[in-house]
Amino acid sequence: MVLADSPAGTVVLPSLAEAYEACRRETAEWAKTFYLGTLLMPPAKRRAIWAIYVWCRRTDELMDSPEAQARPVQELAERLDAWERRTRHLFAGRVSDGLDLVMRDTLDRYPQSIQPYLDMIEGMRMDLVKTRYASFAELELYCYRVAGTVGLMTQEVMGLDGAYISAPWSQRPDTSAAAVALGIANQLTNILRDVGEDRGRGRIYLPLDELERFGYSEQELMAGVLNHNWRALMRFQLERARDWFARSEAGVRWLAADARWPVWASLRLYRGILDVIEQHDYDVFTRRAYVPKAAKLLDLPFSFLVSQAR
User: Fold this and answer.
1) pLDDT digit string (tens) for 53-91?
2) Which of 85, 86, 120, 205 has the fewest Cβ atoms nearer than 10 Å?
3) 215 and 281 housed in the same domain
């Protein structure tokens, strides 16, 4: 491992324990449902997931933080270029702060490809130039880059069930498709929950050809119009998101025993946001959909039972 140099000299890094604790706190603050799921994991795996989450959040903040949104596009592009260089340095063993330190430790424990990380950065670059998506094919690529990649980043941490590890390579399942599907399902859920927030930034992630199919205009979306056409459009969008969750379920049974419960819990709880949107009569303009904490806790035993079925 190589320490980066700063103008003032060699960077003084926090201890590994301090750096992981900082990631834990940040995950707990900004991803409450996700964080609850990580607490069901063994300590080593949960720490790795916290590190990956914070790396992803830092990447997202380059585009979506309030400070970033006030910056010119060229400056944001330069920031993304710098972040890509730093990521390549990280995978080469060069660290410059506490986040790099825990990410390097995670990569040493759970070796993985750099490609999902570079793909996520490409997803951020899409936000530099796109505020509309003509079709779901365009949106699916975006969802893969900004969220499906998270499934690929974390699948080595989750690991395979012991029965598959001992099997010949030709008989081992490939969890990549299911991992990507869960990330895409989560991102579609985010998009549906955040329609009102995104319109305030001039963004529409719902495919434009589908707005047209359901007779609902961009102007109506920007005005927050709730009518029959909007509800029909949203029912269609929710069913698609649920379908992506269903695609991901097939891969959960292949995971290591200590990962199945937390993954099932996270999947079920995040999918529950779709139910809340329905309960709000598809009003995502004035109401934010979230699963109450009590409901999350009550669901954990059910997630455990589901995780034991093979």
Assistant:
1) 999 999 999 988 888 888 899 999 999 999 999 999 999
2) 85
3) yes
